[in-house]
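Recall the central idea of this unit: under ordinary conditions, the amino acid sequence of a chain determines the structure it adopts. In this exercise we apply that idea directly, starting from the sequence alone.
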Amino acid sequence: MPSPTPIVTIFGGSGFIGRYVTQRMARAGWRVRVAVRRPNEALFVRPYGAVGQVEPVQANIRDEISTRAAIRGADAVVNCVGILAESGRQSFEAVVAEGAGLIARLAAEEGVGRLVHISAIGADPASESGYARAKAAGEALVQTAFADAIILRPSVIFGTEDEFFNRFGNMARMSPVLPLVGPDTKFQPVYVDDVAAAAAKAAMGEVAPGIYELGGPDVATFRELMQKLLDVIERRRALIALPFGFARLQGRILDTLQSLSFGLFTNTVLTADQVELLKRDNVVSEGAKAFGELGISPTPMDAVLEGYLYSFRPHGQYDAITASAANLRQ
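Accordingly, the structure predicted from this sequence is:
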């Protein structure tokens, strides 16, 4: 008698990281539940697999009933839920810490075989950043509830839908300057599909329990990353360093405007908490388990960036044609 098709529940499976994990699990032959707050907005994940193989289901990780229903019967659970800034009830404590703990506890209670939790490099209970403290609290709750959990800590993630290079690419298209908070802070950008590959291997039982820090093959300062961006999009912009004190004040003002607007304005520019994060390097720790232990060779930035950042060039996808035509006129 053939064994039943294994099931994985991916919380946040329609998000930036989650959609790549969803595709990998579907290609591996798993049935995939994409657990999201608004399933109707995640219908685009259905074609990632055969008919009926990938299905969005409703779940809010602040609600135990819907979260348990999404987990029940699953062989593996992957938590890709995360927020970079707080808004309303979507606080770091509620989503990043308590939500992660709830998923882990319910996964253990429901007899799930494997739990994969996406955290972040820089998770630290003593950090000045609320985000970093919440990440550390979430990891602690996960490990307490599910001792054999696999925790993945990526550095800043890049890819077609990223909120890092795309954000600054948009700024470079409209502004003659790029303001930098912490220009000398180091990052180790990691390709989103490499993170998804690690999560998929962990969900399928190919990874030992523990914490893994995921960084790409390139380490660069914030200033160097922005210069790489400008080189790729073929624009010349001034890179202006902002003092931490000034940036923190600006972040607090924008945070206050968000609070006073009652949801009409969301601070997607710069938060005071993000300023604190930018004070510390975001690279793989010495001695940490990393891609090497997972059998994955991380993808360099140069292999990917041009493939999606070309849209920020002066003539977008027609930039090379425009340059060629200009040469003919000479």
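The mean pLDDT is 94.
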